[in-house]
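=== RUN LOG ===
request id: a7f3
mode: sequence -> structure
chains: 1
length: 167
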Amino acid sequence: MSETIAEYIVNLLGDKISPEFIAFFISMLPILELRGGLIAAKLMEIDFFKAFAICYIGNMLPIPFILLFIRKIFSLLKKIPKVENTIVSLEARSIRKADKVQKYRLWGLLIFVGIPLPGTGAWTGALVADLLDIRIKHSLPVIALGVLIAGVIISALSYGLFGLLGF
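=== RESULT ===
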């Protein structure tokens, strides 16, 4: 799914905006995040190290804001009748995922963010950390490390990282 969406965005914006900005933008989006950004960067033939840095920064940029403001934003959004059900559903989904993290707290959060599976990543990890009341000074570095781990895994798959490193 990430591949399809990333490819659609690249085809839509590819001739209008710089490839680096497209990869950065895609990396900021929930669901796509760094994974989608790296896929888009590969499609646009951006140099690996440049792509990795751009996508990592793009993925991490919204995370402190999510950790700081998500509860307030959700409270406001719940007051809008047509949006309330979506927010309640998103919270319920995150709470179900939080059960997996709660037992191991920071290690669980690291594994949750670091293993690139559908429904995991920095955005959901930040929401789970907030729901579990893990303080930002603890959750932000763990999420950043998890994104780095996920980035290495995705890079190995999409860029052939081992070939880049001479193995």
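=== NOTES ===
DSSP finds ten helices and no strands in the chain.
The chain has two domains: 2-60, 63-152.
=== END ===
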